[in-house]
């Protein structure tokens, strides 16, 4: 059982996916192929990768200008659309970076229907240590 | 009492701001200076516009309905997270804060 399978058990889960830092889709699970397919997930992954980078720039800038701390590194990004939400996490990548590792794990994310979305549960699964760590 | 001030009563909510469409801070409460609240309001306005643009493009390129107009966004940092819904933005603790409840409350308050 992988983390993608765990994410698919979330209420309202439509898809779970892994992607590179550059946005390319690596692996996915899809609950409703008539609503969301691999090509949509690929574009969504690129959008999320871009947003993680922009949010990281903003967190660094915010901490510099305000002296407030705790925003960087960005761990997760969530877009709440009209009917669907996407939650993506780069927490494990950050942990690898901080451990000095060069080969980083992929980003991971889940698409959920808003009427059932449980964001806290999504974060809990995404932040669980990887098996073998 | 201000409608948005009640958001501060939720666990883990440290700052809440209400801003105009041009990013001008209308009111803000919590553990932050007025200058930083002004910055937060402008940041949240810009971020909201960026998210709207991204969602519009995603919908246009994929023909998938249901992404636009976006309802909100969350950027979760190491210990602090920022949540935006409509013209409201909150800074909340990343751990322990009831994010589902906070997002519901933001959505409700944004309609007032």
Commentary on this structure:
The complex is a heterodimer of chains A (133) and B (112). Chain A has 4 helices and 5 strands, in the order H-E-E-H-E-E-H-E-H. Chain A is α+β, with helices and mostly antiparallel strands and 133 residues long. In chain A, strands 2-1-5-4-3 form a 5-stranded antiparallel β-sheet, sandwiched between helices. The longest helix of chain A has 29 residues, at 38-66. Chain A is globular and about 45 Å long. The relative contact order of chain A is 0.22. Chain B has 112 residues and is α+β, with helices and mostly antiparallel strands. In chain B, 37% of the residues lie in helices and 27% in strands. Chain B contains 2 helices and 5 strands. Chain B has helices spanning 34-62, 99-110, and strands at 13-19, 25-30, 72-76, 80-85, 88-93. Chain B has a 5-stranded antiparallel β-sheet, with helices on both faces. The longest helix of chain B has 29 residues, at 34-62. The mean pLDDT of chain B is 95. The interface between A and B is large, with 38 and 37 residues.
């Amino acid at each position: 059982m992988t983390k993608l399978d765990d994410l698919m058990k979330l209420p309202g889960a439509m898809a779970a996916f892994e992607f590179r830092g550059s946005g390319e889709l690596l692996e996915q699970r899809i609950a409703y192929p008539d609503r969301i397919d691999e090509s949509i997930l690929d574009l969504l992954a690129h959008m999320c990768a871009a947003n993680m980078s922009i949010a990281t720039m903003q967190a660094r800038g915010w901490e510099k200008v305000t002296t407030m701390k705790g925003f960087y590194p960005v761990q997760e990004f969530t877009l709440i659309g009209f009917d669907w939400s996407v939650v993506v996490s780069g927490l494990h990548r950050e942990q690898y970076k901080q451990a000095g590792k060069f080969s980083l794990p992929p980003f991971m994310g889940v698409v959920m229907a808003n009427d059932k979305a449980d964001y806290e549960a999504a974060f809990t699964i995404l932040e669980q240590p990887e098996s073998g760590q | 009492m201000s409608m948005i001030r009640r958001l501060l009563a939720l666990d883990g909510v440290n700052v809440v701001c209400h801003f105009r469409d041009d990013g001008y801070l209308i009111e803000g409460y919590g553990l932050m200076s007025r200058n930083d609240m002004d910055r937060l309001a402008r940041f949240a306005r810009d971020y909201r516009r960026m998210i709207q643009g991204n969602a519009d493009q995603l919908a246009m390129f994929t023909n998938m309905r249901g992404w636009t107009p976006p309802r909100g966004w969350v950027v979760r940092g190491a210990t602090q997270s920022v949540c935006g819904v409509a013209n409201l933005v909150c800074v909340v603790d990343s751990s322990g804060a009831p994010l589902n409840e906070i997002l519901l409350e933001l959505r409700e308050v944004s309609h007032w």
